[in-house]
Write a structure and sequence with these properties.
Blueprint (H helix, E strand, L loop, with lengths): L5 E6 L2 E6 L10 H15 L6 E6 L4 E3 L7 H4 L3 H19 L5 E5 L2 E3 L1 H7 L3 E5 L3 E3 L11 H10 L2 H10 L3 E2 H6 L5 E3 L4 H14 L2 H14 L7 H5 L8 H11 L10
Helix pairs in contact: 1-3, 4-5
Length: about 260
C-alpha cells in the first residue's frame, strides 16, 4: 500500500503535518494537493490543537513545486489544468483558513507550489541555505490568482512581479529582505527554532490566536468595519482564558488556558 502523501503527527497541542515524498524532494502531485486540503480541514476542526507545524520529509526540501512529470497525464490542457487548479486552490484555501496558527518549517528548497503553501502560513522559519523562487516562466506556466494571494500579501505587487517575471531562484537572506520569511537560522537549528516558536504559540491563549488571525485577514479587506466586527475585539473579556491570564499574571505563574 502506498504511503500517505501528507502525514500528521500530534504531540500535545502541536500537530506536525509533513509533505511526504522525500524521494522526489516532496514535489507536489495531484493526490498530495488533495490530501493536503483534507488534512488541513481535519486539523483545523480539532479544538485540542493550538499550533500546526508544516514541513517536508527528508530534511532536504520543503517542496520544489509541482511534479512536472505528472503534467502529461493530468494537466496538459486548459480543462485539465482547471480541474487540477480546483483541487490545488482548495488545498491552499484550507491552509489559509486554518483556525490555528501555522508555522512553516523550511529546510532546503521552497519553490513554486512549495512557496505558495509557505506563504499562506503565519510564520516561516528557514535555514541559511534555503532557496526560494517561482521559476515557472521557464515552463510557460502562469500562476493563477489563488496561487498569487500569499505571495502578494507577504511582499508587494512589485516584489511579486520581480519574482514571477524574472523567474530567479534566490537565497534565504534575500527572501528575508523581501518579506517572504519570518526568520533565518543556521540550517542545523531550523527544526528547533520552529518547534520553539510552536511551543510559545501553544502556551498562549488559543482563542486569542484565532481572533488575531481573523482580524489580520479582515484588515486586508478595504471595506469599512461593521460595528459588530469592531465590537468583536472586546469579546475576549468575557472568556475564562482572560480571567485566567490576569490571575496568572498577578500570581506570577504560568497561565493554564482552556480555550474557552
Amino acid at each position: 500500500m502506498p504511503s500517505d502523501p501528507v502525514l500528521v503527527a500530534r504531540d500535545g497541542a502541536i500537530a506536525t503535518l509533513t509533505l511526504n515524498r522525500p524521494e522526489k524532494l516532496n514535489a507536489l502531485t495531484l493526490p498530495m494537493w488533495r490530501r493536503l486540503g483534507e488534512r488541513f480541514a481535519e486539523i483545523s476542526a480539532d479544538d485540542r490543537l493550538r499550533c500546526i507545524v508544516i514541513r517536508g520529509a527528508g530534511g532536504k526540501a520543503f517542496a520544489p513545486g509541482n511534479d512536472i512529470s505528472e503534467f502529461a497525464a493530468v494537466r496538459s490542457t486548459p480543462d485539465e489544468a482547471k480541474a487540477y487548479g480546483a483541487v490545488m486552490h482548495g488545498a491552499l484555501a484550507a491552509v489559509r483558513d486554518c483556525r490555528h496558527p501555522v508555522v512553516a518549517l523550511i529546510e532546503g528548497v521552497c519553490v513554486g507550489g512549495g512557496l505558495e503553501i509557505a506563504a499562506l502560513c503565519d510564520l516561516r522559519i528557514c535555514g541559511e541555505s534555503s532557496r526560494f523562487g517561482v521559476p515557472i516562466a521557464r515552463l510557460g506556466l502562469v500562476m493563477a490568482y489563488a496561487e498569487l494571494e500569499g505571495l502578494v500579501r507577504l511582499a508587494s505587487p512589485a516584489v511579486a512581479a520581480e519574482i514571477l517575471i524574472e523567474g530567479r531562484v534566490f537565497g534565504a537572506a534575500e527572501a528575508r529582505e523581501k518579506g517572504l520569511v519570518t526568520r533565518v537560522v543556521p540550517d542545523a537549528r531550523v527544526a528547533d527554532e520552529a518547534y520553539a516558536a510552536a511551543g510559545r504559540i501553544a502556551a498562549g491563549a488559543p482563542l486569542v490566536a484565532r481572533w488575531h488571525k481573523r482580524f489580520l485577514r479582515r484588515m486586508a479587506d478595504p471595506r469599512p468595519l461593521a460595528e459588530a466586527e469592531a465590537d468583536e475585539a472586546y469579546a475576549c473579556y468575557a472568556t475564562e482564558d482572560f480571567r485566567e491570564g490576569v490571575r496568572a499574571f498577578l500570581e506570577k505563574r504560568a497561565p493554564a488556558f482552556k480555550g474557552r
